[in-house]
């Protein structure tokens, strides 16, 4: 099954990067199909205008609904289809999570709508909700200048979970936030040389004693999670608060 990814943006060149690295390989393998579009291709005035002043006043500019609607008609179609996932990155969206990435990794089609200026006329999102499955998502509590960087991050989080994408699917099991880690942060990683600039790999990891190694790793995950992400800990870990 090929996953089709479309990106609508006034800066489509942001998505040229998807032709390289792992994503490039996936595209070559036919796992993923990437199409970036310039929203200005659906304007009709000499200045290719995509924005206007906000109704009700206020600073900055808002993206006009017309170009989005015409782009949707051409790129997605004019018939409702709940199998199409339309993502609007937004500071006011729901936090994007690993479980959301997991769910989206089985989608046949994802369309990323990358806003700029102060944002997109809300009727665009309302119209999209009437037609497709819409996700308004935030990457975190900080403000970007547009949705493109968020779309790239979401793309990477989703595509790496597509079956057949990662060479070694086992590596997915032991990551932070992956279900296998019980929602704990990943333990510290080490490789050779055993001693480097006076810093040594923890002895337990060189002991060959798998039980001790597993315990050390679990203890480190719990310690790190309590220190850095108390929001992820709950009474079920049996972790002393
Ligand atoms: N998590 C997060 C998303 C954004 C974002 C997303 C889209 C637009 C469009 C104009 N400014 C934007 C900012 N900032 N931070």
UniProtKB/TrEMBL annotation:
Reactions accelerated catalytically: guanosine(37) in tRNA + S-adenosyl-L-methionine = N(1)-methylguanosine(37) in tRNA + S-adenosyl-L-homocysteine + H(+)
Pfam families per record: tRNA_m1G_MT
Gene3D superfamilies: 3.40.1280.10, tRNA(m1g37)methyltransferase, domain 2
EC number: 2.1.1.228
Keyword tRNA processing belongs to the record: yes
InterPro entries (UniProt xref): Alpha/beta_knot_MTases, tRNA_m1G_MeTrfase_C_sf, tRNA_m1G_MeTrfase_TrmD, tRNA_m1G_MTases_N, tRNA_MeTrfase_TRMD/TRM10
Amino-acid positions noted as binding S-adenosyl-L-methionine in the UniProt annotation, renumbered to this chain: 115, 139-144
Location in the cell: Cytoplasm
Keyword annotations from UniProtKB, A to Z: Cytoplasm, Methyltransferase, S-adenosyl-L-methionine, Transferase, tRNA processing
Residues of the tRNA methyltransferase TRMD/TRM10-type domain: 3-233
Coiled-coil blocks: none
Subunit and partners: Homodimer.
PANTHER family in the cross-refs: TRNA (GUANINE-N(1)-)-METHYLTRANSFERASE (PTHR46417)
Protein role: Specifically methylates guanosine-37 in various tRNAs.
Family: Belongs to the RNA methyltransferase TrmD family.
Protein name as annotated: tRNA (guanine-N(1)-)-methyltransferase
């Amino acid at each position: 099954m090929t996953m089709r990814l479309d990106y609508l943006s006034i800066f489509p060149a942001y998505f040229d990067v998807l032709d390289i690295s792992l994503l490039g390989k996936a595209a070559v393998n036919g796992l993923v199909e990437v199409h970036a579009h310039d929203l200005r291709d659906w304007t009709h005035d000499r200045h290719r205008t995509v924005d206007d002043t906000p109704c009700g006043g206020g600073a900055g500019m808002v993206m006009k609904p017309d170009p989005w609607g015409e782009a949707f008609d051409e790129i997605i179609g004019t018939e409702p289809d709940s199998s199409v996932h339309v993502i609007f990155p937004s500071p006011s969206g729901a936090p994007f999570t690993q479980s959301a990435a997991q769910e989206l990794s089985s989608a046949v089609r994802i369309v990323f709508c990358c806003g700029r200026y102060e944002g997109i006329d809300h009727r665009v999102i309302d119209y999209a909700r009437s037609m497709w499955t819409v996700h308004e998502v935030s990457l975190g509590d900080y403000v970007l200048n547009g949705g493109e960087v968020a779309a790239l991050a979401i793309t990477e989080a989703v595509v790496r979970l597509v079956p057949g994408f990662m060479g070694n699917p086992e590596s997915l099991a032991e990551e932070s936030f992956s279900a296998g880690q019980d929602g704990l942060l990943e333990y510290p990683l080490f490789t050779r040389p055993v001693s480097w600039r006076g810093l040594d790999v923890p002895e337990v990891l060189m002991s060959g004693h798998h039980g001790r190694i597993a315990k050390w790793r679990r203890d480190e995950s719990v310690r790190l999670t309590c220190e850095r992400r108390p929001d992820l800990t709950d009474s079920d870990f049996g972790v002393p608060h």
